[in-house]
Amino acid sequence: MNLNLPFLKxxxxxxxxxxxxxWVVLDLSGPYPERxxxxxxxxxxxxxxxxxxxxxxxxxxxxxxxxxxxxxxxGEFTAAPATAHAIRGLLADLQREKRVVAYLPQLNxxxxxxxxxxxxxxxxxxxxVNVSGFGIESTFMGEFLKKRGIEFENLRVREYKxxxxxxxxxxxxxxxxxxxxxxxxxxxxxxxxDLAAARGVPEDVAAGWLAADLTSAQAALEAGLITKxxxxxxxxxxxxxxxxxxADLLLPARPGKAAKxxxxxxxxxxxxxxxxxxxxxxxxxxxxxxxxxxxxxxxAALRRAKQDKTTKAIVLYVNxxxxxxxxxxLIWREVATSxxxxxxxxxxxxxSGGYYVxxxxxxxxxxxxxxxxxxxxxxGKPVLTEFNRRHGLNxxxxxxxRALMYSAARPYSDDEREHVExxxxxxxxxFTTRVAEGRNLSKERVNELGRGRIWSGQDALDRGxxxxxxxxxTGLARARELAGLPGDAPAWNVTPKNHxxxxxxAQEAAQAARVTVWPFGGERVLTWFDQDVRVR
Length: 536
Hints:
- Helix content is 37%, strand content 21%.
- It is of the alpha/beta class.
- Helix 2 runs parallel beside helix 3 (81-95), helix 3 (81-95) packs parallel to helix 4 (109-115) and helix 16 packs across helix 17 (443-449).
- The protein is globular and about 90 Å long.
- Keywords: Hydrolase, Protease, Serine protease.
């Protein structure tokens, strides 16, 4: 067996008198999506470990009576802040049962969030150190497009709704800058609280690490950010083995009585919200590529969970910046009409349409690092009049102008612009009404919190937009509680009824051959947060 530990040979025996390894090495690398692919074929082809799989590993390690400690090796860790925070919780649970040491060759904001669940943080002398807070960089293409003869009509409700502004404007406006800065301040506040709690220092000390200009592991040690400077071979002893080498020694969880009482269904809503079936856009474009949550697919999964007699509660996991206003409303309806309690758990994003679908859940759980809110509406289109003129293209019209109002060949007329604005104001009114009813707030208060403005999870909690901070495990616990289930009742991942893996996978392969730049079809009214916010 390849032990994947360079300091031990594959035929190394355990020390005398030791019958089982006393330490296990657990590797952490990659983005850690929340759940396994619901499509079995896609699951087989996926090489990315999920947070769900990691949680199962940690749970087995917690129950291994022969195990003394776990060394968590961080590799190319690329998880989003909300996911890193969920991993922090897993390691903290493990730390309560075992000694947990995190080995961090790269000390950065995200790896430290995850590693802060361990009792000890160790880095090599040569560690890369980048603990400088969070920042966002967004490229505005308005001037670039205009130089090429392309203008962009951008109608939005209201001033903080920044969707499509990167295409229509030359620079970031003051309202967008204000909300992004507030969001980053919320993230840094959460980071300070996490690291202060982990290292047992006051929050002002942890905040000082962001301005301390730390450049080496030794400096991080002297500041109290980590507990030791050491290389990996100094941490791994002869009784250490990688997780793969001890998997057979770890007992699977027993179903027990909890399974008979009922279970919780987990329905994923990941990616831009569209009408039709969920699919993946293979075009590697920002915002438009990757997974898309189809209302038909999500609604079918929710209905299957509602109809399943063994399911007593539902968790809707949302990692989406929204999208189609229509699709968001159709998914919302299934949540609002469920007789079984529905708990929404927010991932990295649950903004705009991603918040819309959550308004009538029995409880909403967000990470302190979640980007949520963006209660607003946008509509727009590119205008290629000058582009067509430059390139000798001449669109000719026959029939009613109103029928072709969304054509890119010309801008809206005043009458058409008024028509579109009327429509998006109606959607905004419906959106704010949903929030007011679901969150027991006045419409005036919702409008104060809305206007397209984003919030961090902590800020959303303070303003009544979510109910508590946590992750999927928190949401599952709340769902079990609402349904009167035991704390260890099982959870299952829901797929639409009667959809076998091979036909669905074949459909995805066929769709991958069709390149779609605009994923919303003919729909122009969007509850969408289109900024690709990647904190660094």
